[in-house]
Amino acid sequence: MKADVRHLNVALLHLLENARDAVSGGGTISVRTAVRDGHVMVRIRDTGPGISPEAMDRVFDPFFTTKEVGEGTGLGLTVARNIAREHGGDVVLECPPQGGTEAVLSIALNCAGTYR
């Protein structure tokens, strides 16, 4: 399997844009990388308000958004997850009790070093 760098850039951009929107009133975004269990992991964490349990059940549904009309399409997380899955990985969201959100993008290590 070969990694498609353009598609991975799109996935990362969607996750970073969501984090940016979450901290638009102030806050921080951190990005960490690691290799774990045969996957390259990119963790994007924001200190925004987090995601409600009701919204968490739907965030990967196409066209679902918590943003105002005209501010988002509701496709960013769906697209990011599809791209990750095409690369043998996934996108998982974690919302710790203290607030914020962490998006974890993983791709299979066997395609991470090969680009097209």
Report on this structure:
The protein has 116 residues and is of the alpha+beta class. 32% of the residues lie in helices and 25% in strands. It contains 4 helices and 4 strands, in the order αββααββα. It has helices spanning 5-22, 53-56, 76-86, 109-112, and strands at 29-36, 39-46, 90-94, 101-108. Strands 1-2-4-3 form a 4-stranded antiparallel β-sheet. Strand 1 (29-36) and strand 2 form a beta hairpin. Helix 1 (5-22) runs antiparallel to helix 3. The termini are close together. The model has no long low-confidence stretch (mean pLDDT 91).
SSE ordering? HEEHHEEH
Tally of individual helices: 4
- Strand adjacency order, main sheet: 1-2-4-3
Which class best fits the helix and strand makeup? alpha+beta
Query: Which stretches are poorly predicted, pLDDT < 50 over at least 5 residues?
Result: none
How many distinct beta strands? 4
